[in-house]
Amino acid sequence: MTIEERIIAGVQEAVKTLYGLEATAQQVQLQKTREEFEGHLTVVVFPFVKAARKSPEQVGTEIGQYLTENLSDVVAKFNVVKGFLNLVISDAPWIALLNDINANERFGFQPVTEASPLVMIEYSSPNTNKPLHLGHVRNNLLGSALARIVEANGNKVVKTNIVNDRGIHICKSMLAWLKWGNGETPASSGKKGDHLIGDYYVAFDKHYREEVKQLVAQGMDEEKAKQEAPLIKEAHEMLVKWEQNDPEVRGLWKKMNEWVYAGFDETYKMMGVSFDKIYYESDTYLEGKEKVMEGLEKGLFYRRDDGSVWADLTAEGLDEKLLLRSDGTSVYMTQDIGTAKLRFQDFPIDKMIYVVGNEQNYHFQVLSILLDKLGFKWGKDLVHFSYGMVELPNGKMKSREGTVVDADDLMDAMIADAYEASKERVKQTEMPEEEAREVARKVGLGALKYFILKVDARKNMLFNPEESIDFNGNTGPFIQYTYARIASILRKAKEQGIEIPAQLPTHIAISTKETELIQKLNQFSVTVRQAGIDYSPSGICNYCYELTKEFNQFYHDFTILGEQQEDLKLFRLSLAKAVAKVISLGMRLLGIEMPERM
Question: Is the pTM of this model over 0.90?
Answer without folding.
Answer: yes
